[in-house]
Amino acid sequence: MEVNETGVKEIVNKGDFVKISYTAKLEDGTIIDSTEESVAMEAGLSERARYGDIVVVVGERHVIEGLDEGLEGKEVGFKGTIEVEPEKAFGNYDPEKKDVITITKFKEKPYPGQRIQVGDRYGTVERVIGRRVVVDFNHPYAGKKIIFDVEIKEKIEDQLEKLKALILLHTAKDVEAKIEDGKVVVEVPRGASFDQLFMIGKFRALEEIFKHFEDIEEVEFVERYPRPETEIVGTKGKKEPAEEVAADEEQTEVPEKRGESEKESEGVGADTETKKGTRKGQKRGGKSKAKENRTKEG
Can you tell me the distance from the alpha carbon of 223 to that of 238, in angstroms, rounded to the nearest whole number? Predict the structure, then answer.
């Protein structure tokens, strides 16, 4: 149990940012999810995008409905169990959510228990009968009670920490950010613009940032790429800083080294068409020189 500076117990309310950890299991004890990596690995679960404590906004359905509702009214520091009935977990089981699909729709032969995607729906292969496949589109845990072992670790009050938590929650990326005069600048990790999860999650995070931060008027995502240090091959085959090599070349001209540098620059970032044109030019130049020599000999 946590108390604030005035000695009053901290109660979790809707809209609060709280840091939690949990392990979810079925009534028979089967673990189906956990924020703790060691627990998840021991249970043989597929890897999550990220392990560790998570920050959620109570009431925003960042976790399943029953768990979200179960957090409200608890004290910060709570460590215990929250049981969630099927209708507020993964839904009740609906026997009508089954389809028969011809086997020709599958790239590979399906098998019972296989998770598949058909259009925008996900389902489980129930059985294969000749050239027909029965697919159950209920969630694998539909109709099941989910039991959460939960710990509410703290309530987040710092504005910047809240903002970064929202971005992490939706994109699974840790970011650097700052808030100045109603504007947020977010440093995007390298390569994140090619990550589909990040690109989709970024817009979800934006919606919630504007919802929960009334004083923020603009959010800017910045992806920076500093110039790398320039290196070229030195006289003894080892890489040396360009400035030092350039200083040496001022004293002694070494044609072989320049040729190696040209080859290296061709291989890194050089335009293909330009390189082809350069090589063709060298050949034409070579033939003309040979012809000129023969003429002189004649």
Answer: 32
CATH node for 1-92+144-156? 3.10.50.40
- State pLDDT tens for residues 218-275: 999 998 888 888 665 655 555 555 555 444 444 444 334 333 433 333 333 333 333 3
98-136 topology per CATH: Thrombin, subunit H (2.40.10)
Half-sphere exposure in the Cβ direction for 132 (13 Å, CA)? 5
Q: In 86-217, which ranges are E strands?
A: 98-102, 115-118, 121-129, 132-136, 146-156, 176-180, 183-187
Which two structure tokens, joined as six digits, stand for 162? 């809240």
Q: Locate tokens 């050089």: which residue?
A: 270
| pLDDT less than 70: residues of the chain | 1-7, 230-298
- Helix crossing, 159-171 with 196-212: angle to 10°? 150
Q: Is 91 helix (H, G, I), strand (E, B) or coil?
A: coil
Contacts of 211 (CB under 8 A, 6+ apart): none
- Looking at the chain, the domain(s) classified CATH 3.10.50.40 span 1-92+144-156
